[in-house]
C-alpha cells in the first residue's frame, strides 16, 4: 500500500473492516447497504453493525479499535460519522488505531464534502475501494470540546461546533425530527428563523477568549469551524472561515450583535462571497483554542449534534488526530 505522501506501506494480512450503518439516516437504504457491503467484502474481511440506539456507532467503533480492526467505515449522516470518530478515538489518538472511511448517507454530509469525498454513496464507495486498494490515506486535525455537560474526555468534532444560535437551531431540528419531520433545507430555515426571533427577544451574551488577545465581551453568537465549509444548505456550501482547514487550527466567527442590520449583512456576505468581514465580526481562521463563557446556560452543539446546555465551553484544536481513507 502507499500513503498519499508517497511512503510505501504493506499489509501482511487481509484488511479487517467494520461497516457501521445507520438505517435511520436520511438517504440510507437497505439496498444501498447491501450493494456497499458486497463491494467491500471483495476487498476486505468485513463485519457489519446496524445502529439501534444513540451512541451505538461510537460503542461499535471503540470495540473495533480495541479488537485491532484496520478500518471503520461510517455509512450514515454526519452524526454517524461523529460517533464513529469518537469511538475510534476513545481514550485518545493512537498511531496504531484504525482508519476511518466515510460513505455518505445523510442530508448534509459536511465532513465527506470537506474531504473531497463524493456525496453520492455509489461514487463514495468507489473512492473508498480505491483507497483500500492503493493505500491512500490522510492524517487530519480535529476539534475537541470540553464542558460540564460532557465527561472528562470531552467530545471530538470533525467540521463545526457552536454555542448559542446554531445550537438552538440544531436542538430545534432534533425536536422536529423526533416528531417525524424530514431533515430538509426548508426545515432548517424555518427553525433558524424561529431561533433568531427568539434571540432578538432575549439576546444571549457570551465572553470569548482566544490565544494572545484580550477577551471579547458581550458577543451575540459563537460559531467554531474545524474546516471549510462550515456546513451546506442544500447543495450550497456555507463558508464562514474559508482559510480554516484540517491542517490548521480552529476558525472562529463571532458576531458582537445579532440585531437585524448586522445579522442581515453577515448572512448576505456569507451567501454572496463566503468570506464575511465586518467591524461587528470577530473572525479568526487558525487558533489553538476558543473559550466561551456566559451567565445563563446556552445550548451547545458539535457536528450537528445537540449536547445540552452549559455556561462554559473550551474548544481545542488537536492536530494529526485521525487517519481517514481518501
TrEMBL record:
SUPFAM superfamilies: NAD kinase/diacylglycerol kinase-like (SSF111331). Pfam families: DAGK_cat (PF00781). SMART domains: DAGKc (SM00046). Its cofactor is Mg(2+). Signal peptide: none annotated. GO terms for cellular component: plasma membrane. Keywords: Kinase, Transferase. PROSITE patterns: DAGK. Residues 12-149 form the DAGKc domain. InterPro entries: ATP-NAD_kinase_N, Diacylglycerol_kinase_cat_dom, Lipid_Phosphate_FormReg, NAD/diacylglycerol_kinase_sf. The keyword ATP-binding does not apply. GO terms for molecular function: ATP-dependent diacylglycerol kinase activity. The keyword Transferase applies. Belongs to the diacylglycerol/lipid kinase family. This is Diacylglycerol kinase family enzyme. It comes from Lentzea fradiae. The lineage of its organism: Bacteria, Bacillati, Actinomycetota, Actinomycetes, Pseudonocardiales.
